[in-house]
Amino acid sequence: MDKGLNLNIDDKRSKLLATARTAGIWYLLMAISGILGFLILHSQVYSANPEQTLSNILEAETVARLRLLLELVIIVSQALTAIWFYRLFKSCNEWAALATAIWGTVNAVVIMVSAIAMGASIKIALSSQLLEDKIISIDVLSNVISNSWSVGGLFFGLWLIPLGYIITSSKRMPVWLGRTLIVGGVGYLLSTIINYSGVTTGSWTRILTLPATIGEFWMIGYLLIFGIRPVTKEN
């Protein structure tokens, strides 16, 4: 009986570890696609000047389409990460795990608006419309893209807070990892609110989201290397 019980426990631990590492893979894919798409390629296509954006799309259509494809990867990987986090953490705190999944999925939906605008901007740039009409349309779509990412910061912050709470309360991962994620989540919320408040800000607002970046890569590394700690009496 004890042998069978131990085998059952080992099987559950193995499945939980596989779930953790799968979540880590989706999270890593989201991070890579975000770095390549938003931080590297985005400025090569989309500019504050709509005429320059139009020129960039016409002269480097491949880059513009690659940027769009990476946006789709961000959306899919964000949604899958949210789902796998729910699977991983529902036994720790189902309510917080559900909140993490919901906010993560909502963030993916918000970024989907950006992807739709990107697809439309490429189509308009390559169309036979008058040049002035193209510039006006691309200006509007570029603003939709930038504002989708800005508003998405709210939901990205919201999904990090319950995620950090699960970690700190369950102690199934390093407590300071959870605290870093919570601080990072609050930082995203504050950064978004400040940016939309009309207050003139400098690059210092980026410091508010730095803990989130640290926490995310820490989380990815922990999931891929260690997975999740087993349940103990101390947990």
Describe the protein's architecture and organization.
This protein has 235 residues and is an all-alpha fold. The protein has helices at 2-45, 50-59, 61-89, 94-125, 131-170, 175-196, 206-225. The two termini are 26 Å apart. The protein is elongated and about 65 Å long. 84% of the residues lie in helices and 0% in strands. The protein is built from 7 helices and no strands. It has one domain. The mean pLDDT is 91. Helix 4 (94-125) packs antiparallel against helix 5 (131-170), helix 5 packs antiparallel against helix 6 (175-196) and helix 6 runs antiparallel to helix 7. The chain crosses the membrane at residues 25-46, 66-86, 98-122, 149-168, 180-198, 204-225. This is DUF4386 domain-containing protein. It holds the Pfam family DUF4386. Keywords: Membrane, Transmembrane, Transmembrane helix.
List the defining traits of the structure above.
235 residues; mainly alpha
Structural class of the helices, strands and pairings? Answer: mainly alpha
Helical fraction: over 70%
How does the overall form come out from the CA principal axes?
Answer: elongated
Portion in beta strands: under 5%
Q: How many structural domains?
A: 1
Order of helices and strands: HHHHHHH
What is the radius of gyration computed over CA atoms, rounded to a whole number of angstroms? Answer: 21 Å
Per DSSP E runs of 2 or more residues, the count of β-strands stands at 0
